[in-house]
Amino acid sequence: MSGYTRYVALGDSQTEGLWDGDDSSGLAGFADRLAAILDAQRPGLEYANLAVRGRRIADVKHDQLPRALAMAPDVVTLCIGMNDVTRPGNSFDRALGDLDEVYVSLARSGATVVTTTFPDIAQILPIGRVLAARVRRINSVIRDASSRHGFRLVDLFGAPSMREPDTWSIDRVHGSPKGHALFAAAAAEALALPGSSHDWAHSGADVAWPSWRTRLTSQALWTRNMLMPYLWWHLRGQAVGDDRGPRRPELQRVRPEPA
Predict the structure, then answer these.
(1) CATH ID of 6-209+248-253, from 3.20.20.70, 3.40.50.1110, 3.30.200.20, 3.40.800.10
(2) What angle do CA 84, 85, 89 make, to 5 degrees?
(3) What residue stretches are annotated with the SGNH hydrolase-type esterase domain (predicted)?
(4) Relative to the CA of 76, which of 87, 103, 146, 221 has its CA 20 to 30 Å away?
(5) Secondary structure (3-state) at 131
(6) How far apart are CA 238 and CA 129, in angstroms?
(7) Phi, psi torsion values for 195, nearest 5 degrees
(8) What are the residue boundaries of the structural domains of the chain, listed by start?
(9) What is the Cα 142 distance to its own chain's centre?
């Protein structure tokens, strides 16, 4: 039977599944959704999710990557870098170098690798235009590595669906449940899974776009409730996931074997 048998997801809060469920009821996220799709194609898939909120590229390089390679996965998803894009300071160049090293190691593993560009955050975040140059730089690194190593690329940057307000949670950084479903569908297309298509990228006809007054109010609330606490954490040298580990640290079957 064709298909994948061992899937490992690497990354930060997006891959952990924030805003698709919660810590009390349980998180899902695009990686869990993709694992379910893969398991439906070939039952018996084993899946590990090593992603942790707040993690940066260096964390993947030094912690998640060695653990993932030890599991000998045949498919890997990697979505990492937004915490490096948004982090103040001059460490971004080093982060891009680390990212390229991660890609080289994944390419040598023989696994099928799915990676993704970042969306046009100037269309999403109130401060997105400030970060636009960094997004373009990291997207260029991601595209170049994907081409060089033969990775499966999910290109979110130009997708109309990524500009829709309901694709994103209230913090405008993490996907909403709809957004995570779109991310999973995009990865399925990148893997050329049966039944997949490019529909995930298209804008919905019934999207409700907020007025300029609503957007202005929303941006003010976002700055107060989301941006300022985030900057405060960084000024104190902390990250939101400092006290957390991965929620699925070992390979486990997506669906337990029948008794």
Answers:
(1) 3.40.50.1110
(2) 75
(3) 9-182
(4) 87
(5) helix
(6) 25
(7) 90, -10
(8) 6-209+248-253
(9) 13
